[in-house]
Amino acid sequence: MEYVTAVPHPRTEAAAPARSSRRSLAAALLFGALGAAVALLATRQRWSEGTATVAGGTFPLTARGSDVTGVPAALAIVGLAALVAVFAVRRAGRLAVAGLLALSGAGIVAAALAGASDGSALDEKAAQTTGDTSATVAALTHTGWPYVAAVGGVLILLAGVLALRYGRLWPAMSGRYERGTQRPRRTARSVDPERPEEMWKALDRGEDPTGG
């Protein structure tokens, strides 16, 4: 009895890397863009709140993420720029930009988690409100927005990891407009010398109707 061994089709083997490239590219774009949007949104929300004592009474104070730390917002913008730059460079440059993308995400996570329990921003507001430089905020509480910013950082980090792993398979920007490239010259059409109207049209196009 004879057994027939199935031989994988060359097209099937070649299509596998292409599918991995498309999927990783789509995932990186989604993670990077979504992560930056989430991080930027989270930094504009209230991260902490408390009260300060003013003239025998209490005054409510709140601090947004941008008041606590400007690192997540700045790194989110850097991450977006790196995500775009990945397609503008090749080889070692792409690897470096992908690393910057991953580091931006990691930096956002670290800064957001550090700010989740930080009360210095409210203490500064309490000192400004009371006029007492030694004043501190009371009844300090924190919201969940710092952790939302950290999630955005994780998404950017994942985009960077995908770029490091699969970036060599991704397409790059077209070089048709790079310096040194020349546009193909238009071929002059053949003109019938017995038809004067065609000669005039050739002259209008900047062509030599004599074919010289």
Report on the architecture of this protein.
The chain has 212 residues and is mainly alpha-helical. The chain is 57% helix and 10% strand. The chain contains seven helices and three strands. It starts with 9 loop residues before the first helix and ends in an 8-residue tail after the last helix. The model is unreliable at 175-181 (pLDDT under 50).
Quick rundown:
The chain is mainly α. It is built from seven helices and three strands; from the N terminus they run H-E-E-H-H-H-H-E-H-H. The model is unreliable at 175-181 (pLDDT under 50).
- Main beta sheet: 3 strands, antiparallel
Taken in chain order, the helices and strands follow as HEEHHHHEHH
The proportion of strand residues reads 5-15%
Outline the low-pLDDT stretches: 175-181
| Helix vs. strand class | mainly alpha
Average pLDDT value? 81
Number of strands: 3
Please, how many helices? 7
- Round the Cα radius of gyration to an integer and report it: 30 Å
Q: What's the arrangement of strands in the largest beta sheet?
A: 2-1-3
